[in-house]
Specification:
The N and C termini lie close together (about 10 Å). The chain has one domain. The chain contains eight helices and no strands. Helix 3 crosses helix 4, helix 6 crosses helix 8 and helix 7 runs antiparallel to helix 8. By secondary structure, it is mainly alpha-helical.
Length: about 220
């Protein structure tokens, strides 16, 4: 799997979607302001394999698809939310006890809990990435949780290439986060730049994941 090519193609796809197309970019910014729901609906189009990047149109469909995307994401997040509340609850109880020993134990429990939460988040992401594409292409929310088919798809891609592809995406995301963090330090202008960059980033991720999913057919 050519990870560099995947990153480069995704970047060009996102660039072609917005650069020099200012009306379209304004539509993306509006989609972002509207809680990002239309932008999630637009991502569904990309995940279906539309190329080049489609126009921002059919807002009713974008909203409906975006809400469905959000529902799938929230269902996948349930285990993380449960673990987080358990960790947070146990930590708060320990902190409020006033007992130094209990407070130290609470700190330790929180650290362990956060590690568990991180591991769980990685596991969820491994399944969710393929699940979301299955949902986009079949139109069935149930297919987003067809773990047998999800595992079969990952198997076709290859577990090692798949995990490496995720790591590459995380690294690119970390770089993007640093850039956005620096820009956000600029009063007012930082917020404007942030709103302008969110949609290209979402487009980049969607195209990258789309290519990763399609690699199963080429495997």
């Amino acid at each position: 799997m050519d990870y560099g090519s995947m990153v480069g193609e995704s970047f060009e796809y996102a660039k072609d979607a917005v650069v020099g197309k200012w009306n379209k970019w304004v539509m993306f910014i509006i989609a972002t302001i509207l809680l990002g729901i239309p932008l999630m609906g637009y991502s569904m189009k990309i995940l279906r394999g539309e190329k080049p990047a489609p126009e921002v149109e059919g807002w009713g469909t974008l909203f409906v698809d975006g809400i469905k995307y959000l529902i799938v994401s929230l269902i996948y997040a349930i285990p993380l939310i449960i673990v987080w509340f358990i960790v947070l609850g146990a930590s708060v109880v320990g902190m409020m006890s006033g007992d130094p020993t209990a407070m130290m134990a609470a700190f330790g429990a929180m650290a362990i809990g956060l590690i568990i939460l991180l591991i769980l988040a990685i596991i969820v992401a491994v399944f969710e990435m393929i699940g979301i594409v299955r949902f986009a292409r079949t139109g069935s929310i149930g297919e987003a949780f067809n773990f047998g088919e999800i595992l079969a798809t990952i198997g076709k891609i290859g577990w090692v290439p798949y995990i490496i592809a995720i790591i590459v995406l995380v690294i690119v995301g970390f770089i993007f986060a640093i850039i956005v963090g620096i820009l956000m330090m600029i009063p007012i202008l930082g917020l404007i730049l942030y709103l302008c960059l969110i949609s290209p980033w979402a487009i980049f991720i969607s195209r990258y994941v789309c290519q990763l999913y399609d690699a199963a057919g080429a495997a």
